Every structure is written in C-alpha cells, then in structure tokens.
C-alpha cells in the first residue's frame, strides 16, 4: 500500500487541484493522483476565459462562487496566475438580429443571479470597442468577467494544496478502482496502490473509465480545443471577446494577455486521443478560425500567429458536467465532463466538492449535474 | 498508375540533388522553399541583379556552389518550384503551405524533408543588444546584401562556420577584431583521425585559418565568453571574456557574430510525427532514420543538415540517396549500385562530421554558468534567473513544463535559438542529464503565419 488518506482524488486538473486545496481547508487529509503532470490537458490548454456570461443560468451560482476565488487567487495561492478582471464582451452578427433579443433575455435572468450585463450597439459599441468589424451588430458587456493563464492556474492550486499538506503524485496513471469494504483501493499502472474511504473522480475526458468501474458509464466524448496565439503587440484590448452564434464555425473568441500576445480560440474543435495523451490542431481548423477572427476584428489580420495548440477535453451530450455523489456507491464523488467550459467555474467546483465531502451538503444547485441523468440510456 | 506525388521541402544541396534524382526518374516533384532563390543557406544565391563572382561569394566552396546551382537551373522547368513558401503544418499526408496570404494543402506519397540547419546559439550576457548577430545572419548580410554587420566585428563561438564567416569578412574588406573560439586547440588535434576522413575539407579549413593569419586577425582558443558589453540604446560596444589561460580580456567592437556549430531544423519532422532520439555527441534530439533516410513515419524521408549536421557535401549525397530510397519504395526502378556508393559517401562524411563535433564541442557548461541577469530567451525576454526562479517555485524540470511556466521557448522562434541552452541550464539546475530534460515539442506554424492567410478567397 503506497498511501492512505481521508480522500483520494483521481485527476490533477483544475477541479482536482482546487478540490485538494479546499479539502485541506476543512482539515481533511487528501492524496491527489495525476496520470501525467498537473493541469496538462483541458485545464492547461483551454482559452483562459474567466467568464460568467453565456453560461447556463443554473450555473451562475457556481460561477459566482468561483469568481470570488479568482479575485483572491493571488493571496490564496501565493502565486500570480495572471488573472485580470478586465471584462468580457459577447457579440452577435447582423445576419442574426434575433440574437439581440436573446441577449436581453439572458441579461434579465442573469441580473437575478447577481451578474450585471450592459447591452451595447451602434456607436456605443464601436466607441468602446473600435476593433469590431462591420458584421458585428450588438454586444453584451460584463465588466466583472475577465481572463487568466490556464498554464499556470491548476499547477498553482496543486502547489498551494501541497503546502497545506496534500500529497500529490504526478506520473501516476490509475488503471483500476474498487471499493473493498469501507475503502476505495485504486491501482496505478506501475502497481502502486492507494486507499481512502472517499474517492473523488476529477479525471476529465478519462472520467468515464472510472465511473464505468462503478456501474455508471456516461456518454462522454473527447475533443480538443482549437487554439492559436499571436506575436506580442502593444496592450490595447482589455476584455475577453467572444461571438454568440448557433453556428459552431462562427464561435470564435480572443483575449490579449498583459505581455501583449493575443490568444485566439474556437471555430471548431479537433480530435483528441485520450489513450495516447495527445490532441492535435487540424490545419483546416486553424484556417477556419483565422477567417472568423478576421470577420470579428479585421485589424487582427495584420498580425501573425506564432503557435497553435490543443488538449484533451471531455464533452457531455448536454454540455453540463457530471458533478456530485455517485448514484451507485457511497463515498464516491464525481466532477468531470465540463464540456469545454470548466475553467472559470473550476475553483468553485473544487470548493463545492470539498464542501459536499466535508459537510454532506451545499447551497449550490447540483441537480443538473447528477450522473443518474444518463442512467436510463446506459 | 498515376504519377507518384513527391514533395521536397528545401532547395539547398540536399533538396536540389533529391529533385534532380526525381526528375531523372521521370517524376515532376514539388519543391517548396522559404528562400527567394534556390541554394539554401550554405549556397545562398545573391539577388538576380547582383553580379559578384562565385569565387568571391563562396571562396573554397565556389565549385560546389556553382555545381548545385547549375543542377537546379537544369531541372528548373521540370519541377513544380514554389519559392518564398512556408510549410507551416503537416497533417493527414498533406503539407500545408503559405506564400504570403495564399494557402495550399498539397497531398504527397513521399515527403522529403531537406530543411537545413541554423546556428546553434549559446546565450551570453548582452546577446540581446543591437549588433549581436548569429554567424549565419552575419553571413547572409554579406552574401545576400554585400554588407558587414559592423565596422569592427568580433567572431565568437566555435565550429567551422566561425572561421569560414570570419575569413569571408576579411576577404570582403571588413575589419575583424578577433576570432574567439571556445574550443581548446587540443580538441582539434584529438579529432584529427576523424577529420582525415575528408582531407580536402580539412585542407579548406587550414586555408581559412591562413586567411585570418595573413590579415593579422587575433585568433584565440579555449576562451570563455563572459559578456557582450553595451547598452539597450546604443548597442554593442565590446566583449569581455576569459582567455585560455584564465585571464579576463576585453576587446572593443560594435558587432559580434556568434554561433556554436549548427543545429538541424527538425520541426517539420516533428509535425510529421517522426520519432526522435537523443544524440549524446552533439547533445541534441534528432529525428530517427535508416541509412537511406527513411524516417519512422512511412513515406517521410530525411536528408541533409535538417536531419543531422553532416555538412553540405554529405547533404548532396544524402539528398540523392533519400530520393532514390523514396523512388524505390514507390515501385520505380532505381540503380542499386549508385545507392551503395552514395551510402559509402555518406558514411565518410559522417566520420568527418563526428570529428568536427569533437573538435568544436558545444560548451554546455556555459549555459549552466549564465548569470541570473543574462537574457536566456530573447523572444520572450526571459532571463536565466527567471527560469531558475520558476524551477525553484514549481519544481519543473522537463523542457515543455519549464516553457509552460516560464515562457522560455514560447516566442516567435519556438525555442529554436534558446531551446538547447535552456535545456542545459535546466539539467544543471536540476542535477539531471540533459536528455532527461527532453525536447520542446514542435508546434505549428513552424514560422509565424499571417492571420490574413486565405483572405483572397
């Protein structure tokens, strides 16, 4: 037996790392097990949007919980994860004027959840954001959203958890998980085993491999984000920018980091290979993204991209994560399948899962995330 | 059967000879090259309207340069030649190209990567100042534009290119303040048996040192670079180093050309998903290939200095050999006897190249000794101290992990210039062998790609 603790977490992304930190806050001993290195896949390769607007309304309480953590992240983590509360603007195109109504409707509902959005169009929009192209019709601006550096975030949470006593094992691929008596026993590929009475699965695209061992398969699909970054240019664009559209190809977004590079994302998603631990950006997806970026902000056409990347994300058919207790096995909890939009809520997920495990309850509505919603299909 | 689609990337000595072999077999290959003209780096051709003679431009290599250019000119009409074109990605047996904003996806049955080499650079404090150049860059200035990088130039580093470019500067009438070689002379003596493999090239090297001697240029061996003196506004004003006897010296200059032999441009092999292996002699990761140039990925072939630094003569042989291997694999008749003879040539040059690697070793310890304030990654402005601090805080000791946390190697050049030194610094700091640090994964685009790509459609 290599290690025993109160809680074992399998999956060292942002969810698992932040859960480890907050579990230590409750005085619970915790072991975090990661196949590769902390935060290398979905948590480290995503766009970095710390964005509440645009989320399902029922996710906003979780998002609000997360934003409070993002705001104090520097003190909490003792590290700079480049969080900027510099705003988020979501726009729609002239071709789809009906989306202005959808934006207004969303803003009304979001306000009830504590998220204030400002709707802008015409000169008001262009005065504030002169970089938009002529196709852009209107926008919804959230002053309290922003962005952060995904490469730094999850590792900083894991290091902070370690400083508080969490045990972190990287390069530890779990190939088997069982409940034996009151304890879960998980086995790594190299034969090491770990034991704890509580198991939290935060394994992203690999989550189904573990939930299936407890009779709860879920229809998760691995995909990879389509990301690019430009060379650095003088800092001029504070907010993260995104497009609201029903067409996947049009769904692009960008943000400028303080150093000056502009990170571009979206348009399509690529294939990813969880078994090989690799994901690739397809060249045609890069071209489709750049075309859509030119439409959104034509002046960006003057810049070069210097790098593209992807990672492995787990998508659920309803775009909602699997989060909460197992329906089959006591002491087993899940938080995975964040469907390409887990970064902002990540720290809130960690805090909420720690609360559920430590106290047995939370005020955060968890109904939409129940794993049992897939049971009928199984 | 349709004509096999062969794509050759690079129009230097390897690419030219590969294309020539394809044409001889009745195939019209696509030849893609970033340069405005063929010839590659080593035989870079002057702009069309320039008229300097071969002897002047290429010195001891004039005949070889002329032969390679002549070979290219002779097949020019029988190949699909695409100059000034970047291969920015490879996927699903297509190469993706960009020529300004024009994009194309070209399918291939065989892909020959003849991507050449760039300077292997070792950072030194002050190498970010205006006036600090790579040896290759200073040679381009001379060959292509007929200009010197400064009024008074110090050549510093190691390797044959150090002497070649310094002598070319002397012969062009530039003032060369000194040639400072980090390799001890004893290393050259010890490497002599291997260097004797190609006596003519060895003799050319001797001739270069004579040119320098005749011109009264100070040549020192076994030096340790300490600092390129200067400031951000006015650029380079001098150089500080320890001589072979351990005594600190200072030389005034307004430009420095630096390089430590060469490193292969392997990013396309990486994007083609070829397997790599660590080469302990040069302390570099190289794409694996068989004796004829076949990479680990079917249909991908590697030749010339882009696969391993074996020199321009070897590139001609390995380019042709890889093309014959590809043609044979595609079911076309090839001259087996010629392949045997090319293999023998490549083996001879490989022995010579091993001698060069031993004569002019990469001074890995200098990376470890970089002062904290020295810039390590010029693209991202990351200092040696920044990287050390990140390692202490995060425990990162794998190349890509250190990059993710510190930005070393994350800029425009993707670590092509700082990556090898950064790996040495990480290895020294972590107390592990450099091969355990791993290698930076290549990512598309290999060079910056305009967002306006495809805009004309």
Describe the overall structure.
The complex is a heterodimer of chains A (378) and B (457). With 378 residues, chain A is an alpha+beta fold. Helix content of chain A is 27%, strand content 27%. Chain A has an 8-stranded mixed beta sheet, sandwiched between helices. Chain A has a 6-stranded mixed beta sheet with strand order 9-3-2-13-24-23. In chain A, a hairpin with an 8-residue loop joins strand 16 (240-243) and strand 17 (252-256). The longest helix of chain A is centred in the first third of the chain and has 15 residues, at 98-112. The radius of gyration of chain A is 20 Å and the shape is globular. With 457 residues, chain B is an alpha/beta fold. Chain B contains 16 helices and 23 strands. In chain B, strands 3-2-1-7-20 form a 5-stranded parallel beta sheet, with helices on one face. A 5-stranded parallel beta sheet of chain B has the order 9-16-10-11-12. A 3-stranded antiparallel beta sheet of chain B has the order 4-5-6, with no helix packed on it. In chain B, strand 4 (86-91) and strand 5 (94-99) form a beta hairpin. The longest helix of chain B has 24 residues, at 336-359. The two termini of chain B are 33 Å apart. The mean pLDDT of chain B is 95. Chain A binds chain B through residues 37, 44, 79, 151-152, 155, 159, 230-231, 259, 280-284, 286-287, 290-291, 293-294, 300-309, and chain B through 88-89, 91-92, 94, 96, 103, 105, 380, 393-394, 398, 401, 404-405, 407, 410-412, 414, 443-445, 448-455. Strand 21 of chain A pairs antiparallel with strand 23 of chain B.
What does this entry show, briefly?
The complex is a heterodimer of chains A (378) and B (457). Chain A is of the alpha+beta class.
């Amino acid at each position: 037996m290599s290690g025993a603790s109160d809680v074992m977490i399998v999956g060292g992304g942002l969810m698992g790392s932040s859960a480890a930190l907050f579990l230590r806050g409750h005085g619970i001993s915790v072991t975090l097990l990661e196949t590769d290195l902390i935060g290398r896949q979905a948590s480290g390769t995503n766009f970095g949007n710390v964005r509440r607007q645009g989320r399902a309304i029922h996710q906003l309480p979780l998002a609000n919980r997360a934003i409070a953590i993002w705001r104090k992240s520097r003190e909490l983590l003792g590290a700079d994860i480049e969080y900027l509360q510099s705003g988020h603007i979501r726009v729609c195109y002239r071709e789809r004027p009906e989306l202005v109504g959808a934006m207004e409707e969303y803003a009304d509902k979001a306000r009830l959840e504590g998220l204030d959005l400002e709707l802008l169009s015409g000169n008001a929009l262009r005065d504030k954001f002169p970089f938009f192209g002529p196709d852009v019709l209107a926008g919804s601006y959230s002053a309290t959203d922003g962005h952060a550096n995904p490469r730094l975030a999850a590792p900083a949470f894991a290091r902070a958890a370690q400083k508080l006593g969490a045990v972190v094992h990287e390069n530890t691929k779990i190939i088997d998980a069982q409940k034996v008596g009151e304890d879960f026993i998980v086995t790594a590929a190299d034969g090491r085993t770990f034991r704890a009475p509580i198991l939290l699965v935060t394994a992203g695209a690999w989550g189904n491999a573990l939930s299936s061992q407890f009779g709860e398969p879920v229809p998760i699909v691995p995909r990879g984000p389509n990301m690019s970054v430009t060379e650095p240019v003088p800092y001029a664009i504070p907010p993260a920018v995104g497009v609201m559209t029903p067409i996947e190809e049009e769904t692009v977004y960008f943000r400028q980091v303080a150093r000056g590079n502009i990170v571009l994302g979206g348009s399509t998603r690529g294939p990813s290979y969880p078994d090989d631990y690799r994901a690739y950006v397809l060249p045609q997806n890069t071209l489709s993204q750049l075309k859509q970026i030119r439409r959104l902000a034509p002046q960006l056409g003057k810049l070069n991209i210097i790098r593209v990347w992807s990672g492995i994300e787990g998508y659920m058919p309803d775009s909602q994560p699997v989060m909460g207790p197992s329906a089959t096995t006591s002491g087993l909890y899940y938080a995975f399948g964040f469907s390409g939009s887990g970064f902002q809520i990540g720290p809130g997920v960690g805090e909420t899962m720690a609360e559920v495990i430590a106290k047995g309850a939370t005020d955060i509505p968890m109904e939409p995330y129940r794993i049992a919603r897939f049971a009928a299909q199984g | 059967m349709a004509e096999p689609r062969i794509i050759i990337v690079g129009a230097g000595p390897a690419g030219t000879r590969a294309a020539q072999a394809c044409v001889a077999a009745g195939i019209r290959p696509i030849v893609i090259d970033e340069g405005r003209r063929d010839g590659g780096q080593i035989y870079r051709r002057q702009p069309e309207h320039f008229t300097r003679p071969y002897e002047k431009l290429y010195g001891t290599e004039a005949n070889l340069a002329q032969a390679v250019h002549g070979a290219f000119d002779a097949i020019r009409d029988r190949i699909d030649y695409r100059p000034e074109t970047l291969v920015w990605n490879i996927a699903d047996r297509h190469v993706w190209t960009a020529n300004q904003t024009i994009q194309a996806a070209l399918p291939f049955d065989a892909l020959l990567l003849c991507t050449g080499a760039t300077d292997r650079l070792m950072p030194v404090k002050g190498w970010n100042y205006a006036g600090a150049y790579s040896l290759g860059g200073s040679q381009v200035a001379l060959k292509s534009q007929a200009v010197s990088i400064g009024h008074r130039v110090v050549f510093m580093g190691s390797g044959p290119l150090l002497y070649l470019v310094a002598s070319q500067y002397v012969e062009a009438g530039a003032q060369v303040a000194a040639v400072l070689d980090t390799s001890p002379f004893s290393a050259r003596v010890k490497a002599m048996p291997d260097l004797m493999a190609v006596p003519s090239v060895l003799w050319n090297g001797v001739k270069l040192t004579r040119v320098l001697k005749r011109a009264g240029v100070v040549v020192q061996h076994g030096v340790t670079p300490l600092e390129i003196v200067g400031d951000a506004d006015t650029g380079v004003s001098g150089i500080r180093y320890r001589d072979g006897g351990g005594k600190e010296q200072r030389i005034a200059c307004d430009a420095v050309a630096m390089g430590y032999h060469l490193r292969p441009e392997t990013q396309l092999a990486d994007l083609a998903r070829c397997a790599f292996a660590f080469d302990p002699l040069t302390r570099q990761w190289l794409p694996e290939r068989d004796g004829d140039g076949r990479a680990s990925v079917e249909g991908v072939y590697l030749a010339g200095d882009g696969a391993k630094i074996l020199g321009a003569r070897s590139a001609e042989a390995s380019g042709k050999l890889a093309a014959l291997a590809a043609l044979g694999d595609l079911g076309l008749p090839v001259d087996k006897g010629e392949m045997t003879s090319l293999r023998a040539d490549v083996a001879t040059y490989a022995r010579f190249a091993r001698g060069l690697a031993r004569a002019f070793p990469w001074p890995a310890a200098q990376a470890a000794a970089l002062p904290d304030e020295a810039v390590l990654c010029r693209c991202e402005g990351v200092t040696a101290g920044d990287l050390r601090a990140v390692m202490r805080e995060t425990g990162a000791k794998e190349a890509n992990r250190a990059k993710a946390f510190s930005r070393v190697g994350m800029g425009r050049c993707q670590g092509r210039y700082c990556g090898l030194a950064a790996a040495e610094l990480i290895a020294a700091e972590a107390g592990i062998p450099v091969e355990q640090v791993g290698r930076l994964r290549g990512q598309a685009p290999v060079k910056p790609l305009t967002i306006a790509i495809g805009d004309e459609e």
